[in-house]
C-alpha cells in the first residue's frame, strides 16, 4: 500500500512538471521593443491587461538593430516593436516576421535636449558648436544615431562636431548621458525629452524632417500569435494612440481618430 501511494505521488508530480512549461508558453507574450518605448510600454501593458487578456507581457529592450540581430540569431520572440523601418524590412526579407502583420503604431521626431535651460537660445548652430560634449546614438548600430547623423549632415555639422560627440549604445543611454550631466547636450527622441523630469531645455531642429516611423510585426515563429496580434492592435488603436500622445510620441497616421 505504501509503495502504491509513493507511485501515485510520483505520477502526479511528473504530470504537473510536464504541464507547467506549456501553460507558461501559452500565457506569456515575448516582446522585443526599441529602448525609446520603455516608458510607454509599462503603461500600455497595464492598460492592455484591463481589456481582459490573460497573458503576461515580457519585454526585451534595446536598439532596434540589436534586437533585429537577436531575432536573426534565433532569439525567441512573439512581437517586434521597432524604431526603424529599415530593420523591419531586413527581417521581412528573411521571412522572420509576418509581412502582412506589419503595422505602423507611432511616430517620433528628433530634438536637442539639455539638463540646463535653453530659453532664449536662438542660434541652433552656435548652441551645438559651443557645447563641450553632445551625446548621440552610435550611427552604425543604433537607429537614433543613424537619424542623427543624417540630420547633422544635412546641416553640414556632422564633421565639424566630430570631436564633441559622445556615442551611446541606444536611445535610453543617450538620454542618461544628458540627464546625468555627462554630456552638456544630447540629440534624443522628443518622447524621451518630454517624459524626462531632468530635461529642462529642448530645441527643435531648424530643418523640417519627416517623423521617424515605428512599425510593429508578429514574428514568423511566434508561439502566441493571437496575443501578439491583440497587443499590436491595441497599440495601433484609439486607446494605444492616446497613450503614445501622452508620452510625447506622434500618433500613427490614421490611428487614434
Question: What are the key terms here?
Answer:
257 residues, 6-stranded mixed sheet, D-Maltodextrin-Binding Protein, domain 2, alpha/beta
Textual characterization of the structure:
The protein is of the alpha/beta class. It folds into two domains: 20-107 and 213-251, D-Maltodextrin-Binding Protein, domain 2 (3-Layer(aba) Sandwich); 110-204, Periplasmic binding protein-like II (D-Maltodextrin-Binding Protein, domain 2). It contains ten helices and eleven strands. It has helices at 2-26, 38-49, 64-72, 85-93, 124-130, 143-154, 171-180, 190-195, 225-236, 238-246, and strands at residues 28-34, 56-62, 79-81, 103-108, 110-114, 134-137, 165-168, 185-189, 201-204, 212-218, 250-251. The strands form two sheets. The protein has a six-stranded mixed β-sheet. It has a five-stranded mixed β-sheet with strand order 7-6-8-5-9. Helix 3 packs parallel to helix 4 (85-93) and helix 9 crosses helix 10 (238-246). The protein is globular, with a radius of gyration of 22 Å. The model is unreliable at 4-24 (pLDDT under 50).
Amino acid at each position: 500500500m505504501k509503495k502504491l501511494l509513493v507511485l501515485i505521488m510520483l505520477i502526479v508530480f511528473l504530470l504537473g512538471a510536464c504541464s507547467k512549461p506549456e501553460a507558461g508558453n501559452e500565457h506569456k507574450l515575448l516582446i522585443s521593443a526599441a529602448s525609446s518605448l520603455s516608458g510607454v510600454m509599462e503603461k500600455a501593458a497595464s492598460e492592455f491587461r484591463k481589456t481582459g487578456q490573460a497573458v503576461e507581457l515580457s519585454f526585451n529592450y534595446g536598439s532596434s538593430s540589436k534586437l533585429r540581430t537577436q531575432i536573426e540569431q534565433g532569439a525567441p520572440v512573439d512581437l517586434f516593436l521597432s524604431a526603424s523601418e529599415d530593420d523591419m524590412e531586413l527581417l521581412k526579407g528573411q521571412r522572420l516576421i509576418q509581412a502582412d502583420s506589419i503595422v505602423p503604431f507611432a511616430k517620433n521626431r528628433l530634438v536637442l535636449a539639455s539638463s540646463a535651460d535653453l530659453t532664449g537660445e536662438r542660434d541652433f548652430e552656435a548652441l551645438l558648436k559651443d557645447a563641450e560634449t553632445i551625446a548621440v546614438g552610435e550611427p552604425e548600430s543604433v537607429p537614433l544615431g543613424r537619424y542623427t547623423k543624417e540630420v547633422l549632415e544635412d546641416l553640414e555639422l556632422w564633421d565639424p562636431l566630430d570631436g564633441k560627440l559622445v556615442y551611446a549604445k541606444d536611445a535610453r543611454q543617450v538620454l542618461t548621458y544628458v540627464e546625468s550631466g555627462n554630456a552638456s547636450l544630447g540629440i534624443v527622441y522628443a518622447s524621451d525629452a518630454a517624459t524626462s523630469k531632468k530635461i529642462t531645455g529642448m530645441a527643435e531642429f531648424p530643418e523640417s524632417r519627416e517623423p521617424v516611423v515605428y512599425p510593429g510585426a508578429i514574428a514568423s515563429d511566434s508561439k502566441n500569435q493571437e496575443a501578439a496580434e491583440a497587443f499590436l492592435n491595441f497599440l495601433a488603436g484609439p486607446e494605444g494612440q492616446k497613450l503614445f500622445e501622452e508620452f510625447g510620441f506622434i500618433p500613427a497616421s490614421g490611428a487614434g481618430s
